[in-house]
Write a sequence for this structure.
């Protein structure tokens, strides 16, 4: 089975889908690997590190796309690349299938089997393949780093002959994977951390990290069977905004990570609340690219609102691209290895197993994922 790894072309993206380590493991499985020259450079991997473990460097991208039985990559392909792929090819990457309707249709028309890394089920067995988690973890860390370097104060308490400095107050909204890592990172730096999440089950996790869980009675919130938050009613959102306002006003740093899977993130911090914060305070809106939890945050920019620094920078794992690549490449390898037939040296597309039905979006000329199929039919 020939595995192809094209070079990432998205501007500024330095993460890569294969490390020399995972290339070595794929070769050991029996895969024949071709990668586009320079594929690993964004994360500091030279072509020679891949060729040394048995992968072949090629310069002709179109030929690579046309000849691969399986393509491994990070970001979704350009639309015009899909028709260049071989019918029956398996393409694994992030796809954003909830929004990328044309892309999904093009995959189906081309007879390419598209696997979406966002749609890997959140089960115990699939944790090692879960790229949303591995990258969100790093994003949680980075958000605290970005805030710490822009705050005109330090995070820990410091008692010195020159005076005592109080610890910074950090408020984190949303305690999923990214939020919990942000809490842990801010705590390690010595901040006083408070957090809120609509899923009350995470209160214990927040407290076990040494942070305070802000209690807000929103009535029925709950979570889906996959552990995701349910969308709040407008009344619940208003109640949450009101209950958080005082905590935000006295925080040095606010980090928002609230997401509702498959939907636009809720606006939880209105502009007047940002304006109520002390001058020099920092807000990091992880959701800025997809609509924002914070009113006034601008995707991919750092803006000033009444003396408050509001960070809307995107692609946060890219700030630590080397580690992000290690984790993403491991996620991909684990997914491939999971249904690899060692005797036949090929990936077996087992649509009856517990993982693939959730993340295979198109197969054999049609959209097979029920959720995405319903969305596409609704949009047509
Ligand atoms: P996510 O990115 O979808 O959302 C981030 C957080 O925002 C969630 O904790 C969510 O509850 C919270 N949120 C939503 N609306 C909010 C609001 N109005 N106010 C405050 N917070 C709000 O979530 P995620 O980080 O991907 O994790 C979702 C769940 O999946 C978690 O329970 C996590 O533990 C679970 N999970 C399980 C596995 C696994 O078992 N393999 C892997 C990863 C995550």
């Amino acid at each position: 089975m020939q595995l192809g790894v094209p070079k990432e072309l998205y501007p500024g993206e330095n993460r890569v889908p294969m490390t020399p380590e995972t290339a070595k493991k794929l070769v050991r499985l029996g895969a024949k690997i071709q990668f586009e020259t320079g594929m690993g450079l964004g994360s500091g991997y030279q072509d020679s590190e891949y060729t040394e473990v048995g992968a072949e460097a090629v310069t002709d991208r179109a030929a690579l796309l046309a000849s691969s039985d399986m393509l491994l990559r990070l970001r979704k392909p350009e639309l015009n690349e899909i028709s260049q792929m071989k019918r029956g090819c398996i393409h694994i990457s992030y796809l954003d299938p909830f929004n990328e309707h044309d892309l999904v249709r093009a995959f189906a028309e081309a007879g390419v089997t598209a696997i979406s890394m966002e749609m890997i089920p959140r089960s115990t067995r699939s944790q090692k393949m879960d790229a949303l988690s591995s990258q969100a973890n790093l994003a949680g860390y980075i958000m605290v780093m970005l805030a710490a370097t822009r705050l005109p104060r330090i995070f820990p308490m410091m008692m010195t002959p020159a005076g005592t400095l109080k610890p910074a107050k950090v408020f984190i909204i949303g305690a999923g994977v990214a939020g919990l890592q942000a809490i842990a990172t801010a705590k390690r730096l010595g901040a006083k951390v408070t957090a809120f999440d609509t899923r009350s089950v995470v209160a214990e996790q927040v407290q076990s990290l040494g942070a305070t869980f802000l209690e807000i009675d929103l009535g029925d919130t709950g979570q889906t069977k996959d552990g995701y938050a349910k969308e709040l009613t407008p009344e619940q959102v208003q109640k949450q905004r009101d209950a958080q306002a005082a905590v935000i006003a006295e925080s040095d740093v606010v980090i928002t990570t609230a997401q509702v899977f498959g939907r636009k993130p809720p606006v939880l911090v209105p502009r007047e609340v940002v304006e109520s914060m002390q001058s020099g305070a920092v807000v990091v809106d992880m959701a800025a690219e997809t609509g924002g939890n914070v009113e006034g945050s601008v995707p991919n920019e750092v803006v000033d609102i009444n003396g408050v620094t509001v960070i809307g920078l995107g692609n946060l794992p890219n700030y630590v691209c080397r580690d992000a690549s290690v984790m993403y490449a491991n996620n991909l390898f684990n997914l491939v290895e999971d249904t690899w037939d060692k005797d036949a040296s090929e990936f077996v597309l087992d649509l009856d197993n517990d993982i693939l039905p959730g993340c295979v979006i198109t197969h054999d000329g049609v959209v097979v994922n029920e959720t995405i199929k319903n969305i596409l039919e609704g949009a047509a």
